[in-house]
Amino acid sequence: MISEPDSVLLDRRDPDRNMARYYRLDVVPDLFGGVVLVRNWGRIGHRGRERQHWFADREAALREQAAWARRKQRRGYGMVSPAGDP
User: Where is the WGR domain (predicted)?
Assistant: First the structure.
């Protein structure tokens, strides 16, 4: 079993390029017993865009979540600590 968090938040900031972006990946259950990976991204402080991907099981959704997180980290995004973590 994969022990990934249900929610991953990444950001990318570059003041020289006036860049402040976020990328959020949430794994949530749907009403029919499946699981949805919700990807939300955009400029920090704005609503952004959203895409949803449906999966039959949680493990498949978590694998896809980890793959998206790796892709974004290769593009310069960094993990954001949850509130309260040092």
Answer: 1-86
Paired tokens of 68: 């998206």
Strand partners, 4: none
Report whether CATH 2.20.140.10 matches the domain 7-79: yes
pTM listed for this prediction: 0.84
Domain segments of the chain as ranges: 7-79
Whether the CB-CB separation of 30 and 46 falls below 8 Å is answered with no
Report the C-alpha gap between 13 and 10 in whole angstroms.
Answer: 10
At 10-35, the pLDDT tens digits run: 999 999 999 999 999 999 999 998 99
Element of type H or E holding 36: strand 35-43
Written as one letter, the residue type at 86 is: P
